[in-house]
Design goal:
The protein folds into 2 domains: about 240 residues, Periplasmic binding protein-like II (D-Maltodextrin-Binding Protein, domain 2), CATH 3.40.190; about 200 residues, D-Maltodextrin-Binding Protein, domain 2. The chain is about 35% helix and about 15% strand. Strand 10 and strand 11 form a beta hairpin. The longest helix is centred in the last third of the chain and has 16 residues. It is globular. Pfam families: SBP_bac_8.
């Protein structure tokens, strides 16, 4: 839910058109009816559901699913209106309200864990599943009405309710949990505001059948990866030997570009201690290299200049490799039938890195002492490694905790291997991999946001020959300084 706002079809773009960000709600908004939502009791039984929205979690490729109107009442269950004007909040020691945003059927992990917690602790955690398109606004309005839930998995922090968050330091800093500190959101005092429910990462896919046909090898372990130079040389060789149309397609996404720049030793658009943004020499060199790759041989110009679909190109079987991310794995497991595919280690030249973001941000709200204490106890229990692994397995999450070995429900061997690779790779990535994820949190706490990253537009012009790469980068830096600088 949080993370790169321009990611095509991934966690950060769930429920939105590719390349569009749902802007942070930084100003008061007029009252509105709450979105229709889904609610479950502690046994995971659906009580009310209505709506149509984009597939998420195990369907990050953006497949739309229709959720039928249904009403199911069970003994002891609390019946809610699907389209009410709000939701009760401020629970107590035995009953909590937990807001999430995911497609019914893909929230299996949450339902499983609240049912288990009810059995073990005797505390009911009522899940309210809200369509993504209205979720940030509903949270914003709930804060204004003093009716926030006790717990939530949120897409981003909002200044209007950030000061109402429970400090999760005791969970994040518990060494037995092995939570990756690079992706924990903190304020300037060190208070932990949120912990990721899961993480997403950019990554590389190849057409394994084409590599085999060309007799070209590729790495399979992140500990023995290749450089960008080696990868492009191999992909070009495969293209030439097999007659494929392109060596690589590359998502039109700032996140994917950041990952490449990090791996080539740059910092991309980076702020100094005063909050002023700039780009370093390594970034300029890396971006010039990227723009040069858009030559309609190694890479098609049409993706970054006119919005052509890089995923569809790769799935056609006529492209050697695809630079995208983990959210593609479940979709590829179902959609690619005409060739064998594989996730392969991200290049390192010399830095082993990616662009890694929170899939969702777990928060607790301090509505009252009893509910806040109970909410923190639930989250402490949830992030115990055995419980958290069960959540990841049932929901198809990449864990933010290291040392786990989730067993995912995919039948595809390629999908299983892909998740294994991502889980092995992320602990090896340099801290800069989480820079943008952390930076966004700091912007929000200052009441700032970057509604539309200028990277796509400015570099599209450079690829088209309308301006130099240096000019494009200067323009990008100017927008960052205007919107989120200082």
């Amino acid at each position: 839910m949080a993370g790169d706002p321009t990611r095509q079809g991934d966690a950060a773009g769930r429920g939105r058109a590719p390349g569009k960000r749902n802007p942070l709600q930084n100003a008061p908004v007029p009252p509105r009816l709450a979105p229709c939502f889904f609610r479950y009791d502690e046994k995971g039984l659906k009580m009310t559901s209505v709506g149509v929205r984009r597939s998420r979690r195990l369907g990050r490729g953006g497949i739309r699913r229709v959720v039928p109107l249904a009403a199911v009442a069970t003994a002891g269950a609390l019946l809610l209106s699907a389209c009410g004007s709000g939701s009760d909040s401020g629970g107590n020691a035995k009953s909590l309200t937990f807001w999430i945003s995911t497609v019914p059927g893909q929230d299996a992990g949450w339902k499983k864990m609240v049912a288990q917690y009810k059995k073990e602790a005797g505390v009911t955690v009522n899940i309210v599943n809200i369509p993504y398109d209205g979720y940030p606004t509903k949270l914003h309005n709930a804060a204004q009405a003093n009716s926030l839930p006790d717990l939530a998995a949120v897409p981003a922090l909002d200044p209007i309710w950030a000061n109402k968050l429970i400090d999760l330091s005791s969970i994040a800093n518990n060494k037995s949990n092995k939570i990756n500190a690079n992706f924990v959101a903190k304020d300037s005092s060190g208070k932990v505001l949120s912990i990721p429910s899961d993480i997403t990462a950019s990554g590389l896919f190849i057409n394994k059948s084409l590599f085999k046909k060309a007799g070209v090898s590729f790495p399979t372990s992140p500990r023995k990866t290749w450089t960008w130079t080696d990868f492009i040389k191999a992909a070009d060789k495969v293209r030439e030997k097999t007659g494929a149309k392109y060596s690589l397609t590359f998502d039109q996404s700032p996140s994917r570009l950041r990952a490449m720049v990090y791996e080539l030793g740059g910092k991309y658009v980076h702020a100094d201690s005063s909050g002023k943004f700039s780009v370093d020499a390594a970034t300029r060199k890396a971006v010039k290299r990227f723009v040069g790759m858009n030559d309609d041989k190694t890479m098609p110009k049409s993706v970054w200049t006119s919005g052509a679909d890089p995923s569809a190109m790769f799935q056609s079987g006529d492209v050697v490799a695809y630079w995208s991310g983990v959210w593609q794995v479940p979709a590829f497991a179902e959609s690619i039938k005409k060739f064998d595919w594989a996730s392969v280690p991200t290049p390192a030249e010399p830095v082993q890195a990616s662009d890694v973001n929170s899939g969702g941000m777990m928060v607790g709200f301090n509505n009252n002492d009893a509910a806040a204490t109970a909410a923190k106890k639930f989250m402490s229990w949830l992030y115990e490694p055995a419980h958290y692994q069960a959540l990841c397995e049932a929901s198809g999450f990449l864990p933010v905790e290291s040392g786990l070995n989730p067993k995912y429900p995919f039948k595809s061997e390629a999908a299983q291997a892909a998740f294994k690779l991502y889980n092995e790779s992320i602990p090896l990535y340099a801290p800069i991999s989480g820079y943008f994820n952390t930076a966004q949190t700091q912007w929000v706490l200052k009441g700032k946001s970057l509604p539309e990253d200028p990277t796509k537009t400015e570099l599209g012009k450079a690829i088209n020959g309308q301006q130099s790469v240096d000019k494009a980068l200067d323009n990008i830096v100017d927008v960052y300084n205007q919107q989120v600088g200082g």
